[in-house]
Amino acid sequence: MQGVLFNTLTVIIGSTVGWLLKKGLPKRVTDTIMIGLGMCTVYIGVSGMLGGKNPLVLILSIAFGAAIGSLLRIDDGIHKLGDNVEKKFRKNGKSDVSLAEGAVNGCLIFCVGAMTIVGSLNAGFGDNTMLYTKSILDLVSSMVLASTLGIGVLLSSVFVLVFQGGLALLAEYISPIMTETLIAELTCTGSLMVALIGLNLMKITKIKVADFLPALLFVPLFVYLTGLLGKVM
Question: pTM for this one?
Fold first, then answer.
């Protein structure tokens, strides 16, 4: 768990520093940084998507996940919760970027990818090397992200702790089912959402990315079903 705790700490430190920098930066500068960050995020998302091995799994998972997410209005619910929290602590109106947007974007960017999954599983067996490497990357990423999206990014550290910590604690039990194929498809599907975040950051789109989150739950199912279909064929 040392790697998980260290990763969480780097996100907290990076987010705090980035948030403090945001206060002293002119809006023109933060807007430019936002566009640059959006471009980098799209690149990261597309790179992760290229690791997928079965487009059918991606298509089916996104289709079913988006349907469930839209029906449940997940994105609206998260933003409503974030707005309610902001109203309690903010006295001078609403900021340019919502608390919820920073938190959701941070959760996806920090927790999507093979490095997160494999690193957390390895940490469960006492090998924290990969998470230490990821932590340095997240330190820089959280700093840049918080400098444009604000304090909401700091809240994503809680999800980093819970998600990665959960994988580490359950490593002994879930490692056998976390095959290379499943990890690749989870990374591919999650990376698509990261790419969508990038488009939103550049203000090209206003996609409700959180509505796609249930897609990650469908990935294991469709990996299993397509695997069975492949054996039958």
Answer: 0.83
